[in-house]
Amino acid sequence: MMKKITSLAAVSAIAMGMASGAQAASATLDAVKEKGFVQCGVSTGLPGFSNPDEKGNWQGMDVDVCRAVAAATLGDASKVKYIPLTAKERFTALQSGEIDVLSRNTTWTQTRDTTLGLNFAGVNYYDGQGFMISKNLGVKSALELDGAAVCIQSGTTTELNLSDYFREHKMSFSPVVFDTSDQTVKGFEAGRCDVLTSDQSQLYALRIKLANPDSAMVLPEVISKEPLGPVVRQGDDLWFNIVKWSLNAMINAEELGLTSANIDKMKESSNPGVRRFVGMEGPKGSGMELSDDWAYQIVKQVGSYGEAFERNVGSGSPLQIDRGVNALWSKGGFLYAPPMR
């Protein structure tokens, strides 16, 4: 009898510990609900990813992740306060609690994921580092850049990748370092360097900022893996799940054929996947302390991943970037989200 009572006590203690952990894990969500908005760290201005328009409204792939989190947690995608951060500032701002989530073209690496007290919540853009040059330079390959002066942004993985690439190919270079992406492109345009290196998505975004975009070209070489995605603090599993599944919902929505334009009609569908998505069946939102229609709100107010890609960096944008590896897995790309069931 005593053994059974002891076992029951142990189970009770474990349950209480789990409940206490769940309560502690909701700190960020509680803070977001109390202040009524999500504080989202973004870039200082990168077209297609996080950039204010002429009216000061933030737009881009990374911005849409912030908006998705706000739609899921607060039911309103507009309830976001955007905090522009340089590459050097971004992790400190997240660690200190200045922001709730970092969604700023940030590469997921082992060191960042294991030593900074942070968690990457997924990948919203698969990228790789490349090089942009002036066409007048007459260079066709990165292997012709021996001795070049290279404009680069400090506090980024591009610095390390650049050194690795040039050392591997027994070439030398002179770094010209800037704090922001805007400064790098101005330095490039002013002739302070022969080449500008960054993630290829950034190169296309920075190219359209040139007075004469046709004067520059992006070389074919891609020298690194740059999986970009949102980041949260470690130790808040509930918030981590919310950010992770907000992104997953956008990806799953595209796979299900759901868009901001058709989701109301699709709610009438008998498709089990759609019914689970909109909260009529399945896990709903209780596991994340969200309303049952949290995913519906994301698509209704922000759209699917496909919609976000096309308007921000794809055919509906000045960048005109091809989907490539950012296509769905079913269409030859890398994009794959766990099922919502």
Explained architecture:
The chain has 341 residues and is an alpha/beta fold. It has a domain at 128-225: D-Maltodextrin-Binding Protein, domain 2. Helices cover 39% and strands 16% of the residues. The chain contains 13 helices and 14 strands. Strand 2 (51-52) and strand 3 form a beta hairpin. The longest helix is centred in the N-terminal third of the chain and has 23 residues, at 2-24. Keywords: Signal, Transport.
Topology:
Elements: H1 2-24, H2 27-35, E1 38-42, E2 51-52, E3 58-59, H3 61-74, E4 80-84, H4 90-95, E5 101-102, H5 110-115, E6 118-120, E7 125-127, E8 129-134, E9 148-153, H6 157-168, E10 173-178, H7 181-189, E11 195-199, H8 200-207, E12 216-218, E13 226-228, E14 231-233, H9 237-256, H10 263-266, H11 272-277, H12 294-301, H13 305-312
Parallel strand pairs: 1-4, 1-5, 9-10, 9-11
Antiparallel strand pairs: 2-3, 6-14, 7-13, 8-11, 8-12
Helix pairs in contact: 3-9, 3-12
- Say what the CATH topology of one domain is: D-Maltodextrin-Binding Protein, domain 2
Question: Cα-atom Rg, whole angstroms?
Answer: 22 Å
What's the total number of strands? 14
Distance between the termini: 41 Å
Average pLDDT over all residues: 92
Number of helical elements: 13
Characterize the biggest β-sheet.
5 strands, mixed
Strand order of the largest sheet: 10-9-11-8-12
Task: Work out the helicity level.
Answer: 25-40%
CATH homologous superfamily title of one domain: Periplasmic binding protein-like II
Shape: globular
Class of one domain in CATH? Answer: Alpha Beta
CATH architecture of one domain: 3-Layer(aba) Sandwich
Percentage of residues in strands: 15-25%
Keywords: Signal, Transport
Protein name: Amino acid ABC transporter substrate-binding protein
Family: Belongs to the bacterial solute-binding protein 3 family.
InterPro entries: Bact_solute-bind_prot3, Solute-binding_3/MltF_N
